[in-house]
Design brief:
Residues 284-350 form the Mop domain. The chain has 353 residues and is an alpha+beta fold. It is 21% helix and 38% strand. The strands form 4 sheets. Strands 7-8-9-3-10-11 form a 6-stranded mixed beta sheet, sandwiched between helices. A 5-stranded antiparallel beta sheet has the order 2-1-4-5-6, covered by helices on one side. Strand 4 (51-56) and strand 5 form a beta hairpin. Helix 4 runs parallel beside helix 5.
Length: 353
């Protein structure tokens, strides 16, 4: 368990955060200026808090009560920045082993770096450079890996190239990760735990699927980005139509594309703005996904939108409708209705392993 309980004043800005995170990927999410980078810099030892405590398991990195403040080089933390910061005069091999060679063969395999070892950084793509930076950080044998918006400088195709490697890193390497991002799709694909910062404070914290599916979280992540995350298994393929059928506790979903292999676990983000609600079973629709659900929350905002929490089997979904629609349909907690999801509403960036 990683414990963070710190306070730090930076001019007029006050960082005051408290949370605990288990192993896996803990996403630090929030708008620009919410304190994300200041938080990870404090964990890394690059920014000294005014008060508080930081610990990774039994290893105490900072404790104002005992005046303990380990310097960065003693914290056993790997840090991957937005830019890869590779040594331009060194080969990939030498960059990787600059700080150590812990579990080198496995790191090279997980990140797919074997064919790049003799290359120079100038000849790498942006995604390849970030994978090398990841490998270098891991070969230092860190007890915690910090990643500060590592994909922010990459275009969509390069992001699509590197995300599967980070997923594999999450699933096959024991090192816990703090992953800073303002991209909900990245967070939904990668995170196990989500910490949402707002003006220097923790506004929400918990399992990523739980936090993103809560109506009260919608203003924090943005109404167009809000949506639920569910874990499914590939149950079938409609080869003639180029579709894949996914099973989860609330029923079955059909999505475009031939995804993975039968039985494989797939994580899917369903944007709230793409969920349509109906009080009766719809007929004659082009939409392929119609799920029976029960309303768990109805949150009226200040504007014209209403966030509606839904329960499908053992999973939570989230819908965003207009205030006028919510009132006309008399939406209420406990009401049994139908959620309609177009297959094409879930894009490739919303599907992860």
């Amino acid at each position: 368990m990683i414990t963070v309980d710190i306070q730090k004043r930076l001019g007029a800005f006050q960082l005051d955060v408290q949370f605990e995170a288990p192993k896996g990927v803990t996403a630090i999410f929030g708008r620009s200026g919410s304190g994300k980078t200041s938080l990870v810099n404090a964990v890394a030892g690059l920014l000294r808090p005014d008060a508080g405590r930081i610990a990774v398991g039994d290893a105490v990195l900072f404790d104002s009560a005992t005046r303990q403040n380990l310097p960065p080089y003693k914290r056993r933390i790997g840090y991957v920045f937005q830019d890869a910061r590779l040594f331009p005069h060194m080969t990939v091999q030498r960059n990787l082993t600059y700080g150590g060679d812990h579990d080198a063969a496995r790191v090279i395999d997980v990140l797919g770096l074997g064919h790049l070892l003799d290359r120079m950084p100038a000849g790498l793509s942006g995604g390849e450079r970030q994978r090398v930076a990841l490998g270098r950080a891991l070969m230092c044998d860190p007890q915690l890996l910090l990643m500060d918006e590592p994909l922010a400088a990459l275009d969509a195709p390069r992001k699509a190239d590197i995300l599967p490697f980070i997923e594999r890193l999450r699933d096959e390497v024991e090192t816990p990760i703090f992953y800073v991002s303002h991209d909900v799709s990245e967070v939904a694909r990668l995170a196990t735990t989500l910490v949402v910062l707002d003006e220097g404070h923790v506004a929400a914290c918990g399992p990523v699927g739980t936090v993103l599916s809560q109506p009260e979280t919608m203003p924090l992540v943005g109404v167009r980005a809000a949506g639920a995350v569910i874990t499914t298994k590939i149950a079938g393929r409609l080869l003639d139509d180029g579709l894949t059928e996914l099973a989860f506790s609330g029923g079955r979903l059909v999505l475009p594309g031939i995804l993975g292999v039968l039985g494989q676990t797939i994580r899917v983000r369903i944007p709230a703005q793409d969920v349509i609600l109906a009080t009766e079973a719809p007929k004659g629709l082009s939409a392929l996904n119609v799920l029976p659900v029960q309303i768990t929350r109805v949150e009226f905002g200040r504007g014209p939108g209403v966030a509606v929490g839904l329960r499908a089997g053992d999973d939570d979904l989230l819908a965003r409708v207009t205030r006028r629609s919510a009132l006309r349909m008399n939406l209420a907690v406990g009401q049994k209705i139908y959620a309609i999801i177009k297959a094409t509403a879930v894009g490739p960036e919303d599907i992860g392993q």
